[in-house]
């Protein structure tokens, strides 16, 4: 900075130092408040009418250009102030190191020293930010005139870019290397420094929620084993605003409507290698829903027809603005369906300080009659307009509804096609019309994935996939992938359209080829599956998927290294051969979880029904149902889940195959090995092969909680209790001796350790069977699993 200050001062004083004053003529120059004039001659009287103007010293810039910049011409009378202004204009152009005016009678000589031309621009010392990225930040360009002021601004831009990436101590120094012909190389010397991490995040003023819980609610994380790979432990000042908003949402969604973030301080440590982040907050009191009432003075609107929607909010529960907003959206939708498009639900909230409740009166009132004139979409160079328009449930000519606009905005963001989405409404051609402007910024949607997983039972599994989520800008997904492990190889192709025929219907097709040699059953399977499907919503929180599946399946007995078939149960040997299956599959899903990623409340229900027999060689009905609920304790530090799952297979033909029946064990029933329980060949007299069952039921209870370690380590604990059974078999060989056909319950309990690491989430399950069938069931005391994507 000192260098640039000296340079600027030198340029400012150059006309004072170089102007020549004769005894007969003086030029008054006013620079920075300094007045210089000829000795004994009044300033006001100094003026001249040049008969000639000569430019000297210029090499690249034409004299005519310099005269144009100075705005001087012969035959015109100029005062001292006007001549000074000409000097200022030439200096301000940035083309010259110095400008000297010599006035001698009617002759003016302009002597200039041109600034050098930039020959090239280079960067030194940069490793984290490449040359291409830095070149896009600087305004100085090669073959342009060098400007010290512009070079300083460029250095600041580069330093800012490093600061945003977490290197707040980075320094950038511009230097010039002189070349021949008044040329220079402009070099930005970068000292990147280390990434400045967040060493500690603290909160003051929090009484209801612990620091651990609040740290989980914000985007910034403390430095830890896993956080450094995600960059969330890097200090980025702009991220603090997001953190404050996340904290406000966290508290307000739990009834703390007066919550405020008083201040956020970020202090460097004494060693200047990290930041200490401190949030000062005021929680306020927690408020609860009071009375919920629906009123309307609109003709024809019967509030009793809409009161059933109020049941989603329970009086006495903590106030949650999300629930109220969902209720208002549902009422607006019901009003539109009832042909009241301009009647909207408007909440009036009354605060009761003594009871700490919020009474909500929802008025169904008529608003201004505004129609959608048009929807303008900009920024989508690849994505087709219709893909964006399909996310709007209103079209040109419909009644304008601000909530529908917000919902459409959320749906556009949810596609993942755009890095930013901005939707604004403005007045159209009349006050009764509105134009919706959609401004998007596209982002890459193609992925090449190399992934891996490992478990103590399956070993190493390697995945490779190529996926495009916005194929040809149509919002369609095209995927090709493969999987390879010690006992399975597969190749799959998928194509899916989430807005088939521009409607709220998804459609797609999946084709899979798989070869498997399971380690627990001595068979080899080869499958080709073709599965077209389509899905559609059947409610606000539910959807239905309908699929047709054609499967060609071949079963053979595994062979050893010498080509000899392994010993197999007679029941399994009866399944050897090839057959075709043709079936219809219906899958219903109802999701009321409060989060898809990390739920702490709500529940989810799913049911799948498969009917086989539309041609092919198999006729059966296969049903499975799953229900899972979540809750939390101690301000969401302990998360509880309970799950019930069951299924039944009924055959109409000759009997079921081993590949159609249900199995439990491993991840589905902890404490038991894969295929560990259920009907199997008697191991005392036969092979002991697992055969599977036609019916199963399982219940799972689990709790996860912090274990007292700093959360930056990413380690949490858990306990679980699993109970279940597999029973019934409709197809056994007369020569088989099958055991464990009953419904005897198996029970296991254990503890879990969850560890969020840079390579993915690790899980360690230590289990102990509490109830099992001795000598028949295959138990498991420990299971380790990891799944990641590079």
TrEMBL record:
Compartment list: Cell outer membrane; Membrane
One Pfam family named in its UniProt record: POTRA
Keyword set includes Methyltransferase: no
Gene3D superfamilies registered for this protein in UniProt: membrane protein fhac, membrane protein fhac: a member of the omp85/tpsb transporter family
Keyword Repeat carried by entry: yes
Alphabetized InterPro entries for the sequence: Bac_surfAg_D15, BamA/TamA_POTRA, D15-like, OM_assembly_BamA, POTRA
Domain POTRA: 48-115, 116-193, 196-284, 370-443
Keywords: Cell outer membrane, Membrane, Repeat, Signal, Transmembrane, Transmembrane beta strand
HAMAP family registered for this protein in UniProt: OM_assembly_BamA (MF_01430)
PANTHER family, per database record: OUTER MEMBRANE PROTEIN ASSEMBLY FACTOR BAMA, SORTING AND ASSEMBLY MACHINERY SAMM50 PROTEIN FAMILY MEMBER
Function, in words: Part of the outer membrane protein assembly complex, which is involved in assembly and insertion of beta-barrel proteins into the outer membrane.
NCBIfam families hit by this protein: OM_YaeT
Assembly: Part of the Bam complex.
Family membership noted in the UniProt record: Belongs to the BamA family.
Protein name: Outer membrane protein assembly factor BamA
Species per Swiss-Prot/TrEMBL record: Amylibacter marinus
Gene expressing this chain: bamA
């Amino acid at each position: 900075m000192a260098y640039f200050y000296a340079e600027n001062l030198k340029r400012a004083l150059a006309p004072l130092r170089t102007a020549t004053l004769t005894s007969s003529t003086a030029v008054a120059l006013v620079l920075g408040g300094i007045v210089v004039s000829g000795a004994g001659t009044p300033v006001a009287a100094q003026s001249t009418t040049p008969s000639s103007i000569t430019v000297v010293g210029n090499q690249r810039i034409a004299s005519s250009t310099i005269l144009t910049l100075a705005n001087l011409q012969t035959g015109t009378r100029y005062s001292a102030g006007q001549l000074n202004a000409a000097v200022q204009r030439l200096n301000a152009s940035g083309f010259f190191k110095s400008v000297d005016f010599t006035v001698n009678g009617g002759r003016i000589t302009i002597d200039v020293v041109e600034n050098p031309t930039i020959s090239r621009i280079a960067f030194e010392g940069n490793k984290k930010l490449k040359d291409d990225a830095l070149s896009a930040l600087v305004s100085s360009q090669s073959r342009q005139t060098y400007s010290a002021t512009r070079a300083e601004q460029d250095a600041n831009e580069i330093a800012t870019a490093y600061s945003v990436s977490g290197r707040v101590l980075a320094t950038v120094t511009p230097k010039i290397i002189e070349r021949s012909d008044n040329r220079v190389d402009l070099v930005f010397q970068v000292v990147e420094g280390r990434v400045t991490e967040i060493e500690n995040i603290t909160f003051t003023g929090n009484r209801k929620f612990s620091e651990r819980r609040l740290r989980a609610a914000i985007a910034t994380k403390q430095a830890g084993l896993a956080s450094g790979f995600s960059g969330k432990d890097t200090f980025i000042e702009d991220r603090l605003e997001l953190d404050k908003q996340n904290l406000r949402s966290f508290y307000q969604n739990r009834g703390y409507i007066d919550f405020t973030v008083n201040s956020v301080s970020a202090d460097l440590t004494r060693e200047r290698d990290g930041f200490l982040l401190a949030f000062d907050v005021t929680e306020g009191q927690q408020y609860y829903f009071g009375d919920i009432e629906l009123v309307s003075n609109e003709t024809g609107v019967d509030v009793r027809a809409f009161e059933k929607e109020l049941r989603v909010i329970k009086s006495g529960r903590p106030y949650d603005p999300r629930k109220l907003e969902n209720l208002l959206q549902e009422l607006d939708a019901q009003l539109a369906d009832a042909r009241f498009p301009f009647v909207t639900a408007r909440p009036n909230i009354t605060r009761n300080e003594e009871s700490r409740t919020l009474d909500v009166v929802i008025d169904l009132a008529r608003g201004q009659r505004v129609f959608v004139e048009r929807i303008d979409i900009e920024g989508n160079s690849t994505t087709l307009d219709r893909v964006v328009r399909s996310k709007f449930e209103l079209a040109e000519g419909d009644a304008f509804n601000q909530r529908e606009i917000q919902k459409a905005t959320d749906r556009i963001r949810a596609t993942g096609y755009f890095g930013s989405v901005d939707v604004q409404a403005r007045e159209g051609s009349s006050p009764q019309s509105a134009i919706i402007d959609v401004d998007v910024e596209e982002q890459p949607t193609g992925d090449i994935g190399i992934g891996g997983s490992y478990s103590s039972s399956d070993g190493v599994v390697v995945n490779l996939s190529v996926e495009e989520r916005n194929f040809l800008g149509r919002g369609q997904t095209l995927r090709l992938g493969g999987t390879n492990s010690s006992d399975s190889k597969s190749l799959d192709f998928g194509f899916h359209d989430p807005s088939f025929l521009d409607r709220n219907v998804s459609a797609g097709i999946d084709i899979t080829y798989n070869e498997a040699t399971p380690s627990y059953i001595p068979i080899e399977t080869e499958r080709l599956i073709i599965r077209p499907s389509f899905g559609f919503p059947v409610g606000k929180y539910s959807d239905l998927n309908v699929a047709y599946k054609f499967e060609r399946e071949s079963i053979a007995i595994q062979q050893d290294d010498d080509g000899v078939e392994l010993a197999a149960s007679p029941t399994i040997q009866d399944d050897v051969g090839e057959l075709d299956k043709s079936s219809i599959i219906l899958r219903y899903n109802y999701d009321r979880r409060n989060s898809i990623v990390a739920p702490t409340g709500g529940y989810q229900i799913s049911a799948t029904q498969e009917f086989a027999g539309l041609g092919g060689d198999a006729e059966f009905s296969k049903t499975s149902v799953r229900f899972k609920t979540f809750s939390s304790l101690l301000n969401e530090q302990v998360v509880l889940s309970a799950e019930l799952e069951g299924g039944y297979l009924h055959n109409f033909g000759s009997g079921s195959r081993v590949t159609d029946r249900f199995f439990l064990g491993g991840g589905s029933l902890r404490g038991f090995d894969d295929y560990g329980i259920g009907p199997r060949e008697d191991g005392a007299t036969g092979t002991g092969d697992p055969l599977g069952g036609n019916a199963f039921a399982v219940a799972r209870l689990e709790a996860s909680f912090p274990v007292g370690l700093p959360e930056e380590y990413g380690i949490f604990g858990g306990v679980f209790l699993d109970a279940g059974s597999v029973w019934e078999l409709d197809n056994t060989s007369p020569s088989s001796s099958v055991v464990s056909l009953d419904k005897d319950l198996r029970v296991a309990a254990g503890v879990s350790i969850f560890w969020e690491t840079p390579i993915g989430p690790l899980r360690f399950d230590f289990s102990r069977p509490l109830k099992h069938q001795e000598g028949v069931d295959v138990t498991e005391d420990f299971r380790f699993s990891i799944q990641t994507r590079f």
